[in-house]
UniProtKB/TrEMBL annotation:
InterPro entries on file: ATP-NAD_kinase_N, CERK_C, CERK_PH, Diacylglycerol_kinase_cat_dom, Lipid_Phosphate_FormReg, NAD/diacylglycerol_kinase_sf
Residue ranges crossing the lipid bilayer per the database entry: none
Molecular function terms from GO: ceramide kinase activity
Organism: Malurus cyaneus samueli
A Pfam family annotated for this UniProt entry: CERK_C
Domain DAGKc: 115-265
GO CC annotation, single: membrane
Domain of life of the organism encoding this protein: Eukaryota
Name recorded for this polypeptide: Ceramide kinase
Length: 531
């Protein structure tokens, strides 16, 4: 419990009345017996003086009082499944001075919450998901931002890359954060704009795959209004615009790993969720032609791709992530305050102290795998989403500086279906003889088709394993390449070089909270309680 100035503990119930209200509205009712509960200051959204009208004054025993003074506290109420709502409680009393003292004290405490944003730049994709982005923002998010006294500059995008290009032009440094209203693709645009801008302003060449990139400290908030909303779901635990808006308001901060993708010393894209070749690449390629179907396009293309059952040949080289203690087969998942991610943060700070910005990754051990794959999935986070609540790699970490590389080798349709179904249930997705998973800090892929002409993997292979090339002579097989799905965008090249940049950016989120803790603490009755 916070103290009032002067050291007094706030004891509101003895002198003030208590009324509960639905989200956004103060609806004073006769006082109830106080339940002892607790709302941390960090989860108060706003405090406002409340005007009583005549009708409200005429309730029960309060009728006798000449004049009432009141204030309303708006706060985060945690509901089931990581959902947050704005609730409020109104306190009232006859002593105007006491009432004002409370308002003043609470406002001062809110002012001290330095991580809260005051000014945000908002990009809305009106065409993402079910085309509800504008309505969602106007009806559900803007009123909350205004309640929390956050000022906003809003841009409704007019074409793809509008947000990204705009971020290279505006004075981003005057904002405390950038909000994107849309799906994973919209987030990707904003992320590319922000990271790209930071590198440009710091003179870093993004085309150099070995460059140490400058961290981006301007947080991004995601208001989910897309088709998959995997990044929002994996970092908050639910795809819900009001929950996300409240995480932005309270100023949460979640660092995030970002993978850079290059081809022949040319920068292609960044990825924070899924880099998928084979199954997920083919789904995306097919679904892009069916955007008019909205989120349903993924089901349609998913079914089609499953039936086609294509496999692809190629070689993967990877560097294991030795710096982190976790493994993709861990039973524990990354949660708010994750120790493994904190350890990586410490290591990163030490590295930056030792080497400054010129730190280059050491040439560590490379491992090679070649084969026929139905899917190659590299995920920097779990990739949990409403379709797959545990995600493609349930134990992947948001900010540990690694990605989980999942190789699904050629197998029967039936086995592949069994594997896919495990995306949706509690069983271990990696417990199949045709599935391998590695925690990596970088990897390269070359398809069999391009191996002979352009492969970096082969260069490394030639250097280290003389027999590697002889085992894999040029061939005339009639094979085609798949496409890489990079956070929902296709890549032009199949041969890629990927490196994970630990905690390169930050989100307005706090990771997924442990269910037992918050649900046990907050689910008993409605707990609009004492501060
Ligand atoms: N005004 C616009 N017109 C056309 N395309 C746009 C516009 N604004 C943004 N885009 C592009 O639309 C693409 C898809 O948007 P978004 O990610 O919001 O929705 P989605 O693809 O339905 O959802 P998800 O990415 O979660 O599957 C983004 O890559 C973005 O570049
Ligand atoms: C026949 C049963 C099939 C069940 C398969 C369910 C699998 C759902 C898995 C969804 C994967 C989500 C990974 C996230 C990818 C996003 O980056 C991307 C852009 O939004 N979305 C997709 C679908 O590529
Ligand atoms: Ca990671």
């Amino acid at each position: 419990m916070e103290r009032l100035p002067g050291g007094r503990r706030p004891r509101l119930v003895s002198s003030l009345g208590l009324g509960r209200g639905a989200a956004g509205l103060a609806r004073p009712r006769p006082p109830r017996r106080a339940e002892n509960c607790f709302v941390p200051i960090s989860e108060i959204i706003a405090v406002e003086e409340t005007e009583f009208n005549k009708k409200q004054r005429n309730i029960g025993r309060w009728q006798k009082m000449a004049k009432l003074h009141a204030f309303t506290v708006y706060y985060v109420k945690k509901a089931r499944n990581h959902r947050w709502r704005c609730s409020n409680v109104t306190f009232w009393c006859v002593d105007e001075h006491l009432c004002n003292q409370w308002i003043q004290a609470l406002k001062e405490l809110l002012e001290m919450q330095k991580s809260r944003p005051k000014q945000l730049l908002v990009y809305i994709n009106p065409y993402g998901g079910k085309r509800q982005g504008k309505r969602i923002y106007e009806q559900k998010v803007a009123p909350l931002f205004s309640l929390a006294s956050i000022s906003t500059d809003v841009v409704i995008t007019e074409h793809a890359n509008h947000a990204k290009d705009n971020l290279f032009e505006v004075n981003i440094y005057k904002y405390d954060g950038v909000v994107c209203v849309g799906g994973d693709g919209m987030f990707s645009e904003v992320m590319h704009g922000l990271i790209g801008r930071m590198q440009k302003d710091s003179g870093i060449d993004q085309n150099n795959p070995k460059a140490s990139l400058v961290q981006c400290n301007i947080r991004i908030g995601i208001i989910p209004a897309g088709s998959t909303d995997c990044i929002c779901y994996s970092t908050v635990g639910i795809s819900d615009p009001v929950t996300s808006a409240l995480h932005i308001i309270v100023g949460d901060c979640q660092p995030l790993d970002v993978s850079s993708v290059h081809h022949n010393n040319t920068f292609l894209k960044y990825s924070v969720s899924l880099l998928g070749y084979g199954f997920y690449g083919d789904i995306l390629k097919d679904s892009e032609k069916k955007r008019w179907m909205g989120p349903m396009r993924y089901d349609y293309s998913g079914f089609k791709t499953f039936l086609s059952h294509h496999y692809y040949e190629g070689t993967i080289a990877y560097q294991p992530a030795k710096h982190t203690h976790g493994s993709p087969r861990d039973k524990e998942s990354c949660r708010t305050g994750c120790c493994i991610c904190k350890e990586s943060e410490k290591q990163l700070a030490e590295q930056q102290k030792e080497c400054g910005l010129n730190h280059e990754e050491g040439e560590e051990e490379w491992k090679f795998i070649k084969g026929k794959f139905l899917a190659i999935n590299a995920v920097s986070m779990s990739c949990a989403c409403p379709r797959s609540p545990k995600g493609l790699s349930p134990a992947a970490h948001l900010a540990d500086g690694s990605a989980d590389l999942i190789l699904v080798r050629k197998c029967s349709r039936f086995d592949f279906l069994r594997y896919l179904l495990r995306h949706t249930n509690q069983d271990d997705q990696f417990d199949f003889p045709f599935v391998d998973v590695y925690r990596v800090k970088s990897f390269q892929f070359t398809s069999k088709l391009s191996e002979d002409n352009e492969s970096n993997v082969m260069d490394i292979g030639k250097k280290r394993f003389g027999q590697f090339c002889r085992d894999h002579p040029a061939c005339c097989c009639n094979i085609v390449n798949s496409t890489w799905n990079c956070d929902g965008e296709t890549l032009d090249s199949s041969a890629i070089e990927v490196r994970v940049h630990c905690q390169l950016m930050k989100l307005f989120a706090r990771g997924i909270e442990e269910k037992c803790k918050d649900e046990a603490a907050y689910s008993q009755s409605s707990i609009e309680q004492l501060l």
